[in-house]
Write a structure and sequence with these properties.
The protein is of the alpha/beta class. It has one domain: Alpha-Beta Complex (Spore Coat Polysaccharide Biosynthesis Protein SpsA, Chain A), CATH 3.90.550. It has helices at 37-47, 62-67, 72-80, 84-95, 110-115, 118-121, 141-152, 215-221, 232-243, 260-271, 275-288; strands at 6-11, 31-32, 35-36, 52-57, 98-103, 126-129, 133-136, 156-161, 171-177, 184-192, 203-211, 246-249, 253-256. The termini are far apart.
Length: 296
Amino acid sequence: MQRVRKAVIPAAGMGTRFLPATKAVAKEMLPIVNKPSIQLIIEEAADSGIEEVILVTGRGKTEIVDHFDAHPQLEEILRRAGKEALLREVLRPSQMVKISSVRQQRPLGLGHAISCARHLVGNEPFAVFLPDDLVDAKRPCARQLIDLYERTGKSVVALMNVPRAETSSYGIAAGSADLHDPRVVDIKSLIEKPAVEDAPSTLAVVGRYVLDPSVFDWLTRTNPGRGDEIQLTDALAAMIQAEGLLGYLFEGDRFDAGDVTGYLLANLNWARKTPRIWTSLLQYVDTHRGSEGDGG
């Protein structure tokens, strides 16, 4: 079984839910505490054993690639100032994994974005990270999926249970739990953003995948679907009968950083990891408790 060494991160979206902040700033560069959200994604990739990350970008996204490049002038300034701790933080993004990028010239959907990376992935399994989905877990979410892929040889998608009222916002899977591991689901069908009354379950696919390279052939055969876009979910649904597809109910807390509320919750979650910041936040909340709406 080939080891999973590469990952694709589609990062070409315009971030309209964060306008006007994203008018001139890529949404993936919005900070979670003091790190761009995309850096948390790539840290998870590196911690999962990924060696090369392929960023699929669009117009106006060059700053993402720049963030993971060296910055000799800034590094020298910090070095001369003796700011070694800050220097290590500045160096880290360029040292975690090998970064390459490819441009998605037209917004034709997630499936199309992943297809843009085909020539860089080659004929080997790869992970996909959706940058809006941040997962805080003791064992990286992607590593959990990679372990299952390397054990079974089947493509794997991350699953989580969601309220039925929210099923229309996700790809929804239906299948049966493994008798030996209830976190593993043998998926029998996938539906992209079904109407609530048509959802076959409450098992939602979230932004982590480990895919066999055969998915590229399935994407080539996939016609535009919802939103007139090539949907990854549609290609995976077609794969099921021929190759099988597994889901994994991952361990960890997921935050939708593509939504303003989810983004703020992600900031609070990662702020808890820095006692100085967390203490100040708690003091602020305590001071302003009960003052909502009074302008104070």
